[in-house]
Amino acid sequence: MLKPLLALLLSTALALPAHALDLAREEVRGFIDEMVRDHGFERPEVEALLREADIKQPILDAISRPAERVVPWYEYRERFLTPTRIQQGMDFLAEHRDRLARIRDENMVTAILGILGVETAYGRITGRYRVLDALATLAFDYPPRSPFFRSELREFLILAREESVDPLTALGSYAGAMGAPQFISSSYRRYAVDADGDGRRDLWANWDDVIDSVANYLHMHGWRDGEQVVVPATLADENLDRFDLSKIELNETVRSLRAKGVLFQTDLPPEAPAMLIVGEGKSRPQYRVGFNNFHTITRYNRSALYAMAVNDLGAAVHHAANPQAAVPHLMKDERR
Predict the structure, then answer these.
(1) 242: number of Cβ within 10 Å
(2) 30 occurs within a structural domain
(3) Each residue of 113-142: b (16+ CB within 10 Å) or e?
(4) Digitized pLDDT (tens) for each residue of the chain, 336 residues in all
(5) Whole-angstrom distance, CA of residue 162 vs CA of residue 76
(6) For the sheet containing 252-253, what is the strand order?
(7) DSSP per residue over 99-116, as a string?
(8) Selection from 157, 156, 133, 137 nearest residue 146 by Cα
(9) 26-52 burial string, b = 16+ CB within 10 Å, else e?
């Protein structure tokens, strides 16, 4: 009886989901020294805060999990283009119409609607981990990217001081992304906006701040007001060897794509940067041409599927709320 009991106790101990961060570790001591030396924190303050951080195995499991099957475009699209998500977007648009109206570029409004819908279902799914735990876990117990997450932990502590965020209660994703727009700490500090002038940049509860912060992020990453994002396309010859699809890059122009037999409509000039996008439909490829603003959306998440879903969800919300209005960036159902 004793051996099975000991084995059970051992397996239970190994499966513990969390343990306190050990402040005696050399790399943790070095981090504390940096916060005191370079950023004006009091040593007891940092030590007390980090003593509260838990190293959580589920966070390490989530970030170390082998990449899921790369789903085809038609499946990825269906995750977000649901009646429920579109209705949530319509409710959001109705509630925040005045703030969104201040953004004069209709295409950017569409992108913001899409980003907030894809990221967090308009604030409904913002993460269940304490940001402190997520960043401490990845900063000190995830060697492949520990320097990045250590810098994000530093940015989070500074952010908490600047914005009066409680670092012990702030929640986010397993990677430390925060609030309705899922900004990481460095992006929060760099791009968040105090839209209503209350002296704080609150991306959890202040929707004026959220909307203007996403708009600022897009502008700072090269968004061009008034320009198209993406348009449907067909190919005269579906041999893709003449296209470099290995990276998400504006590696073509309107002129060069047309010279290669890509058929699409745009009001952009021939020299405008462009890219061919290929999505997998149920029975045949789906083609689009993305322009500068499409590439800008991929700076939020470096995935063409993500940027297409953002565009399509935002356009679907826009169209559902304004069925009589022309929405040229609304794509047809592409499940075929």
Answers:
(1) 11
(2) yes
(3) bbbbbbbbbbbeebbebbbbbbbbbbbbbb
(4) 434 443 433 333 344 567 999 999 999 999 999 999 999 999 999 999 999 999 999 999 999 886 556 789 999 999 999 999 999 999 999 999 999 999 989 999 999 999 999 999 999 999 999 999 999 999 999 999 999 999 999 999 999 999 999 999 999 999 999 999 999 999 999 999 999 999 999 999 999 999 999 999 999 999 999 999 999 999 999 899 999 999 999 999 999 999 999 999 999 999 999 999 999 999 999 999 999 999 999 999 999 999 999 999 999 999 999 887 665 555 655 544
(5) 38
(6) 252-253, 273-280, 285-290, 230-235, 262-263
(7) HHHTS--HHHHHHHHHHH
(8) 137
(9) eebeebbeebbeeeebeeeebbebbee
Task: Enter the tokens of residue 163.
Answer: 């914005």
Decide if 119 is inside a domain: no
How many CB atoms are located within 10 Å of the residue 172 CB?
A: 26
- The reported pTM is 0.90
Domain presence at residue 284 = no
Q: For the domain that residue 59 is a member of, what is the CATH number? A: 1.10.8.350
* Contact call for residues 113 and 318 (beta carbons, < 8 A): yes
Q: What is the DSSP letter of 241?
A: G
Residues 6+ positions from 280 with CB-CB distance below 8 Å: 72, 73, 74, 286
Residue 252 bears catalytic tag:
no
The size of the chain, in residues, is 336
> How far is the CA of 326 from the CAs of 56, 83, 141, 224, 329, in angstroms?
49, 20, 51, 20, 9
Q: Which domain holds residue 25?
A: 16-65+127-191
Distance CA(197)–CA(195), nearest Å, equals 6
Q: Where are the alpha helices (DSSP H) in 15-82?
A: 26-39, 43-51, 57-64, 73-80
Q: For residues 231 and 262, is the Cβ–Cβ distance under 8 A? A: no
Determine which one of 52, 78, 119, 163 is catalytic. 119
Let me know if residue 158 belongs to a domain.
Answer: yes
Amino acid at 277: I
